[in-house]
Write a structure and sequence with these properties.
Helix content: 40-55%
Strand order of the largest sheet: 1-2-3
Radius of gyration: 21 Å
Order of helices and strands: HHEEE
Oligomer: single chain
Strand content: 15-25%
Number of helices: 2
Length: about 130
Amino acid sequence: MAVEVVLLVPALVLLLGVFVAGWRLWSARTQVTDAAASAARAATLETSGSVARARAHRVARTNLEVLRVPCGSSTIDVDVSGFARPPGQPAQVRVDVGCTVGLGDLLVPGLPGSWRVHGTASQTMDTFRERQP
């Protein structure tokens, strides 16, 4: 009986650690993608590219903080080149949010210390709304 416990307990602990790592990565990726979608939507409501970029950064950072995404570091890239197109032509805003999720505290052999997850979202701008670069 003691031999079975000695063999099974470490295997179960490793399995639990892998499960927790997978859940942490999936959860962070979902939240980062949601933050990118919210930021892209907020940016399309502005009339100026510079204001839209600032608003997208603010919304993405706020979402990451409110949702308590376990990011060691995060990056937010906003493409507002659609604001340079004249009204009447279709355009989009694209937001890419990256996040480094720490896995070093799980003590599972073979797992990296951290993993980078990305979330990207595009939102179509109102075709006939006034725009400024």
